[in-house]
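hey so u asked for the seq, here:
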Amino acid sequence: MKEILEQVSHKVEDDMQAVESDGHADIAHTLAPSRIARSCPACSKSMDNFKFEETGVWVDACPDNHGIWLDRGELRLLAQRTQSQPEYDAGEVMDAVSDLILGSL
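ran it, structure tokens below
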């Protein structure tokens, strides 16, 4: 488990470049539940739309654990909102990210 968490930690550090180049989210759509049912790119099932923690950011997830799907700018917005909220600490954020990643394997 420690090895997996270290891999996730390194992946998160490496992916910070992706966060920086993610662009900007369409706030009107990102901070509200989706009105459009989206299909999972892996299995074509209708994805669940949920608000990530207390960030206010709505994301899509495959009900069969094929992944969490983010629109442009949502990764950046999630990173900003989790860092700016005092109730989050680095360990909690890593736990949440690990749950998302490991839960989709």
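The beta strands are 48-51, 58-61, 68-69. The CA atoms of residues 68 and 100 lie 7 Å apart.
lmk if thats what u needed
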